[in-house]
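ok new one. same drill as before - structure tokens go in, u give me an amino acid for every spot. 224 of them this time. try not to just spam alanines like last time pls lmao
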């Protein structure tokens, strides 16, 4: 029996390393038998199931007890959402998907760490809500979003490629912007949108550390 397990482990090791450079499609349910298309994520260890995956099908919902970093590199496409529960995931530290290019929607609420998705090119809704006193959001490659909302103390934001937001582009560093957690923390936000050409609505509120907008964004105001 023991010999059988050893042989099986060796065979698995060889086949995954051979597939390393190719596309590998995985379902979020693969890590959680029985659920439909939603994986409820309670701990970073559950992400080990997606080692080597390049395409993820289904949703991931980060639970409020999730403690640690969310690091899922190698995945380029998510056919689904990655979200925290509505009440937020305050122990979620770094959120990192270095290779991600496309995802349906991303909602990270009540988090306390940096967000690093430097290769994401487009998505539907993007919601980033910070509860700590400082945070960095790197979305350097993002060119297009439907509805974007960045709230809380994001002291550094990189949206250098963002051209089009079809619905609303909101940056809020005010205590009145539904910021989760300790209300005494004073939010302080950086708004850096040097490439923005079109947004149906642009809203910036609260204490702004730095505000950069390209000079030809007058289109933004033509609708309001
Ligand atoms: C995915 O996100 C969209 C838009 O933000 C939302 O309407 C939908 O309910 C979400 N689905 C799940 C399963 O979280
Ligand atoms: C856009 O996002 C904000 C913040 O997440 C939300 O309150 C609003 O309802 C959204 N609008 C649309 C049209 O989806």
């Amino acid at each position: 029996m023991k010999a059988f397990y050893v042989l099986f482990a060796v065979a698995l090791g060889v086949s995954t390393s051979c597939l390393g450079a190719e596309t590998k499609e995985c379902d979020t349910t693969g890590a959680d038998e029985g659920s439909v298309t939603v994986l409820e994520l309670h701990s970073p260890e559950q992400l080990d199931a997606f080692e080597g995956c390049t395409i993820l099908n289904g949703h991931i919902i980060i639970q409020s007890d999730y403690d640690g970093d969310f690091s899922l590199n190698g995945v380029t496409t998510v056919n689904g959402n990655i979200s925290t529960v509505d009440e937020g995931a305050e122990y979620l530290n770094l959120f990192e998907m270095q290779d991600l290019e496309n995802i349906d929607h991303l909602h990270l609420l009540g988090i306390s760490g940096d967000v690093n998705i430097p290769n994401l090119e487009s998505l539907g809704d993007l919601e980033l809500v910070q509860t700590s006193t400082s945070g960095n959001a790197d979305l350097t490659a993002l060119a297009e979003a439907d509805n974007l909302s960045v709230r809380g103390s994001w002291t550094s934001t990189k949206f250098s490629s963002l051209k089009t937001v079809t619905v609303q582009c909101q940056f809020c560093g005010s205590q009145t912007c539904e910021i989760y957690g300790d209300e005494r923390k004073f939010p302080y936000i950086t708004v850096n949108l040097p490439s923005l050409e079109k947004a149906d609505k642009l809203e910036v509120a609260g204490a702004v550390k730095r505000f950069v907008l390209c000079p030809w964004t007058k289109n933004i105001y033509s609708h309001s």
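Residues 38, 59, 81, 83, 105, 124-125 surround 2-acetamido-2-deoxy-beta-D-glucopyranose (ligand 1) (CB under 6 Å). and btw The first helix runs from residue 2 to 19.
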